[in-house]
Write a structure and sequence with these properties.
Helix 11 runs antiparallel to helix 12 and helix 12 packs parallel to helix 17. It is built from 18 helices and 17 strands. It is of the alpha+beta class. It starts with a helix and ends with a helix. Bound molecules: adenosine-5'-diphosphate (ADP).
C-alpha cells in the first residue's frame, strides 16, 4: 500500500491530543497529590500540637522559667511521634525542643507561625528552618490560660521527607501517564490506520483509473460515510468504464466505417494538421496514412486545391467543394474534393473533414456516354437525311425518268438496310451491355457456329470472289454459351475479313483447341490495319476509313460486339495485322467441362 500522509497527519493530531491530555492529567494529579500530602502533614502536625496543648502541665510550665521536665517530656513526645516539637513562650523564649537544645536556640518571638497563633487558633508556616537548615512545615497552637496567651506548642515536619515521598508518587504518576499515553498512542495509530486505509485505497484506485486501468475497484469496508464514498466511487468508475467502452466502440466503428468507404477521408484539426486518414485517401494522395498523422495537410498532400478549399471551409465555417487533377502514373486522375467543417463542444469549429472521390472513371464513362450519344445521332442522321432527301425529290419531281426513279428507290433501300443494320447492332450492343446479356447458356459445338457463319457470309464472299477456307477438327469443340451470339461474333469477324480484303483475296477460318481453351482464328489477305489504329479498333464507332466502311455497309460496331461477346463467354479476343498483307483475329473461349456437357 502506498504511504499515506493523511494517516500521519491524523495520527499527529491524535498524538498531540494524547500527550497534552497525559501531561495535563499528570500535572493535575501530581498537584492534587502534593496538596493532599501537605494537608495530611498539616493535620498530623496540628493533632500533635493540640495533643501537647491539651496536657494540664503545660500552663504551669509556660508560666515558669525553662524547666527540665518540659524539655524531657517534649523529647519523649518528639521521639514517640517522629516529629520535632517546640514550646515557645509568649516572650519568644524557647522552653523546650524535642530535637535541639533550647538554651542554644535563639528568640522565636518573630517566627510567623508564632505570630499567627497569637490571634488565631492555628499558626502555620512553611520555610527553611534557621535551626535545622531544612525546609520545614510548622504548625503552632496557642497555649491559653483562659484568654491569656502564654505561648505556643509547635510541631514541625521536615519537608524533605514529604518531598521524597512526593517524588516517588510523582514518578508513579509520570509512569502511569506515560504508560497510558503509550497505550493510547498505539491505539490511536490503529484507529488512524483503520480510518485512513479505505481512503488510501480509494486514492490508489483513483490513481490507477487515472492511468487508464478502468477495471480497478475500491473494496467496500464499512457502512459509514467512507463506505458510501467507496460505493459512489465504484459506481463512478463503472460509469466511466462504460463511457470509455462506448467511446472506444464508437471510435472503432467510425474507423471501420471510414476504412470501408470508397471515398478517401482525411480529418484535420483547426490548424490543418492531419488527425485521421483512411487507406483510400492514402492511395489517392499517394502517401502513407500512418506517417501523415500530425503533419500539416499541405506538407502531406502538396496540393494547393486541398489547402485552399480546406482554408476556405475553416474560415467561412461552411462546406466547400472543388475538383483537382493529380498526375497519375498512367493517366491524370480527376479527384472531387468536398470539405465540411467539424464542430466541437459549443458549436465551435475545431477541425474539418476532407472527402476525396476519384472520379476519373466516372468522368471517362460520362465522356464515353456523351460520345456514344453524339455518334449514334450522327450515324442515324446520315441515312435518314439521305432517305428523306431522295424521297422528297421523288415526290416533288413527277417527271423524273423511270431509270433515275429506280436508282433513287434502290438507294433508299440501301440506306434503309444500313439504318436497319445500325439499329440491330445498337440493340445487340445494348443487350450485351446489360447484365445477363447472353440469352441462353448451353453447350455449343463451335464447328456448327463456323458452319452457320461461313454460310451467312458466303453470298458477299462470292460476290467479291473471295475464297473462304475452313479448317475444323474432326471432333466437337464445345464451349458453354449462347449459340446465336457466338454466330454473330464469328459472322462479324468473317464479314470484316471479306470486306477489308480486296476482290479475289482469301479468307481462312480455323477452329482449334488446346488443353482448356477453344481457339477461333479468322485470317485474311486483306489491307491490314495501320499500327496507329490498332489500339482503337474495338471502340464503338471507330473506323479506320469512315467512307469506305460505310460504303461497305459497316456500322463501326462490329468489333465492339465481337469483344463484348467473347468477354461475356469468359474469353478474349486479340489480333495481329500487317498493313497490306492481312490480319488475323483470334478468339479464345474456355472449353465446356464434362460436368457442363452432362
Ligand atoms: P465496321 O463496321 O466499320 O467494319 P468494325 O468495328 O467491325 O466496324 O471494325 C472497325 C474498324 O476496324 C473497321 O472500320 C476497319 O477499319 C478495321 N477492321 C476490322 N476488321 C478488319 C480486317 N479484317 N482487316 C482490316 N481492317 C479491319
Amino acid at each position: 500500500m502506498r504511504r499515506s500522509r493523511f494517516l500521519w497527519k491524523l495520527y499527529a493530531g491524535y498524538a498531540v491530543l494524547i500527550l497534552t491530555t497525559a501531561a495535563l492529567v499528570g500535572v493535575l494529579v501530581g498537584r492534587s497529590v502534593v496538596d493532599s500530602a501537605e494537608k495530611q502533614a498539616h493535620n498530623e502536625l496540628l493533632a500533635r500540637a493540640r495533643a501537647l496543648v491539651a496536657d494540664d502541665r503545660m500552663i504551669g510550665w509556660f508560666r515558669a522559667d525553662p524547666d527540665k521536665h518540659i524539655q524531657q517530656w517534649f523529647g519523649e513526645q518528639g521521639v514517640a511521634t517522629g516529629t520535632r516539637l517546640t514550646a515557645i513562650r509568649a516572650d519568644g523564649l524557647v522552653l523546650a525542643d524535642s530535637d535541639f537544645n533550647p538554651h542554644q536556640m535563639e528568640d522565636h518571638g518573630t517566627r510567623p507561625e508564632f505570630l499567627a497563633a497569637q490571634s488565631a487558633p492555628v499558626g502555620y508556616n512553611k520555610r527553611r528552618s534557621v535551626t535545622s537548615q531544612i525546609d520545614t512545615m510548622y504548625v503552632a497552637v496557642p497555649v491559653l490560660a483562659g484568654t491569656e496567651f502564654l505561648g505556643v506548642a509547635r510541631a514541625a515536619y521536615p519537608l524533605d521527607t514529604v518531598e521524597s515521598e512526593l517524588a516517588e508518587i510523582r514518578a508513579q504518576v509520570v509512569l502511569g501517564a506515560t504508560a497510558a499515553a503509550v497505550v493510547a498512542l498505539v491505539l490511536a495509530f490503529v484507529v488512524a490506520r483503520r480510518t485512513t486505509r479505505p481512503l488510501v485505497e480509494i486514492t490508489s484506485v483513483a490513481d490507477a483509473i487515472a492511468r487508464g486501468d478502468y477495471r480497478r475497484r475500491a473494496a467496500k469496508t464499512a457502512g459509514d460515510e467512507i463506505g458510501q464514498l467507496a460505493t459512489s466511487f465504484n459506481s463512478m468508475a463503472q460509469q466511466l468504464l462504460d463511457r470509455v467502452d462506448t467511446i472506444s466502440r464508437d471510435r472503432e466503428r467510425l474507423v471501420a466505417i471510414l476504412g470501408g468507404m470508397v471515398e478517401g477521408v482525411v480529418a484535420t484539426d483547426v490548424n490543418e494538421l492531419v488527425t485521421h486518414m483512411n487507406d483510400v485517401a492514402g492511395r489517392i494522395l499517394g502517401v502513407s496514412p500512418a506517417q501523415s498523422i500530425g503533419r500539416p495537410i499541405y506538407e502531406v498532400t502538396r496540393s494547393a486545391e486541398i489547402s485552399e478549399t480546406l482554408g476556405r471551409a475553416l474560415h467561412d465555417r461552411d462546406r466547400e467543394a472543388a475538383e483537382m487533377v493529380r498526375v497519375g502514373p498512367h493517366e491524370d486522375e480527376v479527384v472531387e474534393l468536398r470539405v465540411a467543417p467539424l464542430r466541437g463542444a459549443g458549436g465551435v469549429v475545431d477541425g474539418a473533414i476532407v472527402m476525396l472521390h476519384n472520379v476519373t472513371e466516372l468522368r471517362r464513362l460520362e465522356r464515353i456516354r456523351q460520345d456514344f450519344v453524339a455518334n449514334v445521332s450522327h450515324e442515324l442522321k446520315t441515312p435518314i437525311t439521305a432517305i428523306r432527301g431522295m424521297a422528297e425529290t421523288l415526290v416533288e419531281d413527277a417527271d423524273m425518268p423511270i431509270a433515275t426513279r429506280e436508282r433513287f428507290v434502290e438507294k433508299i433501300k440501301d440506306q434503309s438496310l444500313r439504318l436497319s443494320s445500325l439499329v440491330s447492332d445498337l440493340l445487340t450492343m445494348g443487350r450485351l451491355e446489360s447484365e445477363g446479356s447472353l440469352v441462353r447458356i448451353e453447350p455449343v459445338d463451335l464447328a456448327r457456329v463456323v458452319d452457320s457463319a461461313t454460310t451467312a457470309v458466303a453470298p458477299v464472299a462470292d460476290k467479291r470472289r473471295t475464297r473462304v477456307s475452313v479448317d475444323v477438327p474432326g471432333e466437337a469443340v464445345e464451349v458453354l454459351g449462347d449459340q446465336d451470339a457466338l454466330e454473330q461474333m464469328l459472322t462479324n469477324l468473317l464479314s470484316n475479313a471479306v470486306k477489308y480484303t480486296p476482290a479475289g483475296g482469301e479468307v481462312w477460318v480455323r477452329l482449334g483447341r488446346s488443353a482448356e481453351v477453344a481457339v477461333l482464328e479468322v485470317r485474311d489477305s486483306g489491307v491490314g490495319i495501320e499500327p496507329i489504329h490498332q489500339k482503337r479498333i474495338f471502340e464503338r464507332f471507330y473506323r479506320v476509313d469512315k467512307a469506305r466502311s460505310r460504303e461497305l455497309g459497316g456500322t463501326g460496331l462490329g468489333l465492339a460486339i465481337v469483344k463484348h461477346i467473347s468477354l461475356a463467354h469468359g474469353g478474349d479476343v486479340s489480333f495481329e495485322s500487317t498493313p497490306g498483307r492481312g490480319t488475323v483475329f483470334r478468339v479464345r473461349l474456355p472449353l465446356a467441362t464434362e460436368d457442363d456437357v452432362a
